[in-house]
């Protein structure tokens, strides 16, 4: 099984980290908030309270050794982009980053993210498909 780092343990990041763990992967969760980190301390293989905007921190956490890194920082656009740039410059190939808008996603792609996710939009598509398939089954 793989090893993954999830940076930002908000609703989205926490869900990604928990699900990867449930699928049998070894997950490191990183967040500046002690509360967010504590909430997942029992569940994830490793957790750390740290500011991912600090390049030394990213290096000392050994980000380059993971099979993939997920940038799940939301509101703070600058931190989200900066962390993605730093991970990419460290040579990490498998970077999944959460985008707020299409333009934000394009920027993330340019600075080295290999996969962009739009949680609200992607969930909207899933829900619509699920409703649609229920409708078809109902006939
Ligand atoms: P969600 O919808 O997933 O709950 P959100 O879009 O509201 O998240 P935020 O709450 O802004 O996004 O960010 C998600 C998490 O990222 C938060 O728990 C926040 O503490 C964490 N975070 C923000 N900046 C950093 C950083 N520089 N280093 C580590 N974690 C960070």
TrEMBL record:
Q: Which GO terms describe its biological process?
A: potassium ion transport
Which superkingdom is the protein from?
A: Bacteria
What range(s) does the RCK N-terminal domain occupy?
A: 1-118
Q: What is this protein called?
A: TrkA family potassium uptake protein
Q: Which residues of the full protein are shown?
A: 1 to 139 of 214
GO MF term (any one): monoatomic cation transmembrane transporter activity
């Amino acid at each position: 099984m793989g090893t993954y780092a999830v940076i930002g343990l908000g609703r989205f990041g926490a869900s990604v980290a928990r699900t990867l763990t449930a699928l049998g992967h070894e997950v490191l969760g990183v967040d500046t908030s002690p509360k967010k980190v504590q909430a997942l301390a029992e569940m994830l293989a490793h957790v750390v309270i740290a500011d991912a905007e600090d390049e030394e921190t990213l290096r000392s956490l050994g980000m380059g050794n993971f099979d993939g890194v997920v940038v799940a920082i939301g509101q703070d656009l600058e931190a989200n982009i900066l962390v993605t740039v730093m991970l990419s410059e460290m040579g990490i190939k498998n970077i999944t980053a959460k985008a707020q808008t299409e333009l934000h996603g394009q920027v993330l792609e340019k600075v080295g993210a290999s996969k962009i996710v739009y949680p609200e939009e992607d969930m909207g598509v899933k829900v619509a498909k699920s409703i649609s398939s229920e409708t078809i089954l109902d006939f």
